[in-house]
Design the sequence.
């Protein structure tokens, strides 16, 4: 089972959005049969089996094992990943795109950048997995509590200068064996906990 899977297929994304199918999928952290799942979610086995087949057809669940019981074969399925994120590719032409956002300081632009990262990294991970390779990435995540708006502004200025200096030092547009990387820095307020 993968830690996380990026879903590009619109039908698979729709299956994830269905509350019942999402509930069934959440119970598939270990191999389970339709009969076992029926007890967990409180539905008839036939109805659960219908939803399991839909999840399997869309690549969200897979057969972990089959057991023979007399003349009956029991299929036990498991989720393909512990969690899922829907790629903007699943939305087709209405997907977010940072190039369509004029205000580079808006929340919409930040969301579009994050969505592009999901799209691009999801594709790269899938390709690396198919080629049995490791995808080198870098992720930084921290919190900073600004005492004043002036502090936030000063921080933004200094961070921009630091990144500009680092990029100028390490970017080599003439490196024939180099590989271009995308660097995105996002900052947003953290939602207050109730």
Sequence:
């Amino acid at each position: 089972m993968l830690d996380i899977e990026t879903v590009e297929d619109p039908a698979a994304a729709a299956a994830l959005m269905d509350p019942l199918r999402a509930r069934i999928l959440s119970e598939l952290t270990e191999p389970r049969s339709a009969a076992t799942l029926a007890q967990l979610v409180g539905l008839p086995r036939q109805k659960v089996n219908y939803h399991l087949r839909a999840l399997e057809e869309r690549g969200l669940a897979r057969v972990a094992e089959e057991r023979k019981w007399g003349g009956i074969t029991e299929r036990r399925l498991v989720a393909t990943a512990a969690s899922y994120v829907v790629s903007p590719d699943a939305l087709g032409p209405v997907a977010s795109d940072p190039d369509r956002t004029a205000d580079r300081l808006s929340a919409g632009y930040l969301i579009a950048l994050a969505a592009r990262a999901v799209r691009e990294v999801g594709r790269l991970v899938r390709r690396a997995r198919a080629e049995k390779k490791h995808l080198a990435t870098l992720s930084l995540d921290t919190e900073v509590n600004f005492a004043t708006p002036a502090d936030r502004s000063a921080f933004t200025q200094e961070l921009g200068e630091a990144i500009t200096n680092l990029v100028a030092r390490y970017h080599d547009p003439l490196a024939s064996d180099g590989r271009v990387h995308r660097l995105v820095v996002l900052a947003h307020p953290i939602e207050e906990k109730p």
In short: The mean pLDDT is 94. The beta strands are 2-7, 61-69, 72-79, 81-86.
